[in-house]
Design goal:
By secondary structure, the protein is α/β, with parallel strands linked by helices. Helices cover 45% and strands 16% of the residues. Strand 1, helix 1 and strand 2 form a beta-alpha-beta unit.
Length: 328
């Protein structure tokens, strides 16, 4: 029996989370409708013990690889996938069966290439602290290139035949999900639908993901070239309309706004790139719509806000440290 959907789970060093991810991928679907492809990557062997309950499960395939690289693992899973549809699931995250099943029904009935759902953000104790919905727009490119994007791996289901030769970049170690979607939407026109149903939960590890100032800054530095590459590809292929251009520039401005106070001269140069492309496009943050401020160059606004934002950053860092200690 050919499975309806292939769920690809790269895994390394998370044996305590992995069984939950596998169980969530199987839940709510008839036997044989889902194949779960687990791809352990690297020297860690702890997955063997955690997957003992699924050792003889007909719908769970394990394909270990020697490279400690999540993107190579995702590509391995994609190469071996047999389902009509495919989705990616990180080993510490999990699907919400009710929403995921509806998502499969929607992509079947609609005939579109991609269906994206909403995501719960949960803490280490499983408590929901936020729900992220897909942006209210109809173009996948606009939805993922702007600062409103939802790129978590588990929220998207793809028609496998439409992915062509799409690959995850093994050289990328951060914002892998961003790059995958930026490249995917800029390389081909994909029809898209969204649903407000919650289809998955994204596990937030406070202790591991409280970034240093340098890492917070570097992640956004990585994002800008990804956006510009998508912009240039769309432009070269004659597929860059005004909405897509605006989304890219607002995505760049989102990075500028987030990290300007950490390296203002660097982010000034990035802002100047956005202004050169189209000076009419402004950041989406509400402050830029206020009287007086809305007539100022947004780069000037960043310099005006610099001292205040630096101080607030230091306060937030202290509060997060206190929250980590409280959770422990």
């Amino acid at each position: 029996m050919t499975p309806l959907v292939s769920v690809i789970i790269p895994t390394a060093n998370r044996p305590h989370f992995l069984p939950r991810a596998v169980a969530s991928a199987l839940a709510g679907m008839p036997l044989g409708a889902v194949e779960v492809i687990v791809v352990p990557n690297g020297p860690d062997k702890s997955w063997k013990q955690s997957l003992l309950p699924y050792q003889k499960h007909p719908s769970v395939r394990v394909i270990p690889i020697s490279e400690a690289n999540a993107n190579i693992a995702r590509n391995t899973g994609l190469t071996n996938a047999r389902g009509e549809f495919v989705r990616f699931l990180d080993d510490d995250d999990y699907l919400i069966p009710e929403g995921a099943v509806k998502q499969y029904e929607l992509i079947q009935l609609s005939g579109v290439d991609v269906v994206s759902g909403s995501v719960q953000l949960v803490d280490v104790k499983g408590r929901v602290f936020d729900v992220g919905q897909q942006p209210d727009m109809d173009d996948l490119c606009v939805a993922v290139l702007g600062p409103w994007r939802r790129c978590q791996t588990m929220v998207h289901v793809y028609r496998r035949s439409k992915l062509g030769g799409a690959k995850w970049n093994p050289q990328t170690s951060v914002r892998q999900d961003f790059e995958w979607l930026f490249d995917l939407c800029s390389e081909a026109e994909l029809s898209w639908k969204k649903t407000n149903d919650v289809v998955g939960a994204w596990q937030h590890h406070w202790a591991q993901r409280i970034s240093s100032s340098g890492k917070f800054n570097d992640i956004r530095k990585v994002t800008v070239p990804m956006l510009l590459r998508a912009y240039n590809r769309l432009l070269a292929e004659g597929r860059l309309d005004e909405a897509r251009k605006r989304a890219v520039l607002q995505g760049i401005w989102g990075c500028v706004h987030a990290a300007f106070f950490l390296e203002p001269f660097y982010w000034t140069r990035v802002a100047q790139i956005a202004i050169k492309i189209d000076s009419r496009v402004r950041p989406i943050q509400q402050i830029y719509t206020l009287p007086v401020i809305r007539i100022l160059n947004p780069l000037l606004v960043q310099w005006i806000m610099l001292p205040k934002r630096w101080m607030f950053h230091k306060i937030r860092q202290l509060l997060k440290v206190l929250q980590i200690r409280h959770n422990w």
